């Protein structure tokens, strides 16, 4: 593995940045009661929600993984972000109001309000396991690999522990408020640093991308043939939206930021703001990854593209800022994961079984569960390099588990006849099929791309949920209050919005996002 050096000035900038983040997070923490600790007092404005949501979503998978994928297969990886923007519009219009009106702490809690406790416990357990062993451990491992580029003799486990302590130092004492306020700084640094890197990248090798685009090269195509191994065009329609709903609308780590909004209107604006920020990742993450194919040909590991660009292209001083931006993505992901995991455990399990449910006790349990979660993730993280195939299996498992969960949410929100027993049977059936596919996928679907398998699992789960629901009694009326879609609510909202000026109308900005997304697909088709 090639190693790099970093100047004392750049190291000083990174060190000062880390101290600033810890100080700022602690200064703005709230832990006086459970609502303050887990949901920042439900007081956040749309700007804060949007920046925090963007920072939390730019994980090691996005920043390092997408640039690496762009280096390897071209621009097609941006389809996940574009589809995600469409999902954000859907989320803002249909799901977000129900989440906020139902006043839930966690997304699994919403399942209990709509269905029953069985669905809540199942989904919460899935989220906690994924948060610790995949997301948190993956972020820690990615951070350690980057540090080892500079200090190859450093112990991997020690680096992981240091990063875990940095993220935990402000997240655990101050809760979601600390995490969000730290993410505001991290988002700004990440955006500024990435823009600078993009400009330098284009100055050094922009002609390579322009020539690829002019020659109609496949690397610059978002719409790929059906047989494409990266993103077949049909997968954009039938597969990505389902996984997008799971990531943006069912993911506690991200949605918890939306739950902190002080109103439905602020939450909606925050999500749409994130949509515009996410659109920028085409220019600050994906295109530099393609240009790096010419600047740094033959990299052994595509995932090292982004760190390599940072360390080789950025001049002294700016390197420290960009390195801080890279660490921002990793630490913000960790803090988001820790907070969501502690919220899930405390509110979905401890609060349901313990007799002592006062706010102070819940906050204490939340802090303890955060410590345990980050400790387990730090212990597991080094194993990711040794058991990479297991990690791939686990990621594939999640892609199989997601469709039944999305199906349960869609059926529950848009169909009032579906009940708790039907939803739980659908979720368990989906889990059984996921395990089956993990071992026997070649015999069932052959070499069919996983994006094309997703719709089969979704439709099957929805059918199971609906048919089994018909075998049991209708859900009680209280199960349908603030948990199901109402066309009358949408009509009344549209009537109210007619009196609003265009720049305050969330439907106008939703339309702008959809039009811009369509234009990008057309330009790069």
Short description:
The chain has helices spanning 8-27, 34-39, 46-57, 60-73, 79-101, 107-114, 117-150, 156-214, 233-238, 240-249, 252-259, 264-279, 281-295, 305-313, 318-353, 359-380, 383-386, 388-414, 420-444, 450-470, 487-497, 506-523. It has 525 residues and is mainly alpha-helical.
State the CATH architecture of the largest domain. Up-down Bundle
- How many helix segments? 22
* Integer average pLDDT: 88
Give the low-pLDDT segments: none
User: Which CATH class of the largest domain?
Assistant: Mainly Alpha
* Helical content band: over 70%
* Total number of domains: 2
Structural class: mainly alpha
Listing every helix as H and every strand as E from the N terminus to the C terminus, the arrangement reads HHHHHHHHHHHHHHHHHHHHHH
| β-strand amount | under 5%
CATH topology name of the largest domain, in short, is Sodium/glucose cotransporter
Distance between the termini: 36 Å
At the fourth level of CATH, the homologous superfamily of the largest domain is Sodium/glucose cotransporter
Number of strands: 0
**Strand count, sense and closure of the main sheet?**
none
Characterise this structure:
With 525 residues, the protein is mainly α. The chain folds into 2 domains: 8-385, Up-down Bundle (Sodium/glucose cotransporter); 387-485, no CATH class. It contains 22 helices and no strands. The chain has helices at residues 8-27, 34-39, 46-57, 60-73, 79-101, 107-114, 117-150, 156-214, 233-238, 240-249, 252-259, 264-279, 281-295, 305-313, 318-353, 359-380, 383-386, 388-414, 420-444, 450-470, 487-497, 506-523. Helix 3 packs across helix 8. The longest helix has 59 residues, at 156-214. The protein is globular and about 65 Å long. The two termini are 36 Å apart. The mean pLDDT is 88.
